[in-house]
Amino acid sequence: MDNKTKVLYDDGHHKCVMFGFDDESHEDSFLSVNQYLIVQNGVGVLIDPGSESIFDELYEEVSEHVEIKDIKFIFLSHQDPDVSGSIAQWALVTKAKFIMSSLWVRFMSHYGFMEMDRVMSLPDHGARLNFGEDSLTFIPAHFLHSPGNFSLYDTKSKVVFSGDIGAAIVSSPDGYKKVGSFEEHKEHLLAFHQRYMGSNKLCRAWASQIKSLDVQTIAPQHGLVFEGEDTDKFLDWLSELECGSDLLENLYPTGK
Ligand code: FE
Description:
The protein is an alpha/beta fold. It has one domain (5-247): 4-Layer Sandwich (Metallo-beta-lactamase, Chain A), CATH 3.60.15. The chain is built from 6 helices and 13 strands. The strands form 2 sheets. It has a 7-stranded mixed beta sheet, with helices on one face. Strands 8-9-10-11-12-13 form a 6-stranded mixed beta sheet, covered by helices on one side. α5 (200-211) runs antiparallel to α6. It is globular, with a radius of gyration of 17 Å.
């Protein structure tokens, strides 16, 4: 197993795996990228598989955990290239359904993906999908940062795959990308969230949904994973954060 791969949860039937393949053409930008996989009884769900440039490495590593033909769903939290850029490649090697916001379906053709009948588009309020003995919940995360954006909650492992929420601008550490001290980590969260997240009202709306769930881990698409009490510290921090339209004077010369 590659040292950038970490099993977040495994009870023998249900497993969550984190991969950390960075796009090497951008390795000087200090934006580490994470991809995820859920496997239950041999059936896979791939989450935010990323850009075309990491497809070969990710394919190889994913196949250590599930037969590629048994990937049944591929979830795309939003439309960005570091999330969805490899959609056409994954469409060729699997028969998976692609789950994404209804806002972004028509844009996928620009990544060379034309099989729109393979898309399960999510309505704004989200959806719940039966997955084996358990379920996957797609939680609205709109404007955090993308206008059509979802997080995925896995009821079995209690992991929230949060997309860009919780992302930090850090270089890729060796080994498991986990928050050591939230107090130290929050400085790496601040600038990203202030600029990329829509507003405090939106952050609160998302955080209150997540607080109502039994959550063990928050796993973002960039940076480090939050576990245990760090999940609560992060949700409290996010609920108080001023960002996006709260800081209008930083964005427009005329201010408020
Ligand atoms: Fe993004």
